[in-house]
Amino acid sequence: MRRITFGSAIVAAVIVGAGAGFAQGNSEAASKAPFTQHFEERQLRPGELARIEVPCPFGTVPTGGGFNVAADVVVQTSAPQPNNWLVVAKNTTNVFKGARAYVVCSTP
After folding, report:
1. pLDDT tens, residue by residue, 9-58
2. Domain count, the chain
3. Which residues 6+ apart lie within 8 Å of 49 measured at CB?
4. How far apart are CA 97 and CA 108, in angstroms?
5. SS3 for 27?
6. Which of 16, 69, 80, 95 has its CA 20 to 30 A from that of 22?
């Protein structure tokens, strides 16, 4: 997992690849800094429906999150959970495809 620390309350998503998404979680915590960003990358088997959960460190909550997926990977869910960000994605091809989920965390 990779960690990035942000110094301001503004969080932006960079769109790279075939599909990407970003959404906001706990808006009260979103007004506080610093933020940390954590990633989980997976190679999806042909036809696989994957549940990718990216946890926040202890004492922090998700304030946003999202995904970046290869072409022909369909994201069915991208949403905050109490302590993590959940992405559910399906590889609709007959070859391995990449999917990346991320969460932005801050103290409540």
Report:
1. 333 333 334 566 655 555 555 555 688 999 999 999 999 999 999 999 99
2. 1
3. 76, 88, 89, 90
4. 35
5. helix
6. 95
pLDDT digits (tens, 9 = 90+) for 59-89: 999 999 999 999 999 999 999 999 999 999 9
Per-residue pLDDT at 68: 96
How far, in Å, CA of 58 to CA of 36, rounded?
12
In the chain, where does DSSP find H-type helix? 27-30
Structure tokens at 51: 């549940």
Residue 72 domain boundaries: 3-106
Query: Is residue 84 left, alpha or beta, with left meaning phi > 0 and alpha meaning psi from -120 to 50?
Result: beta
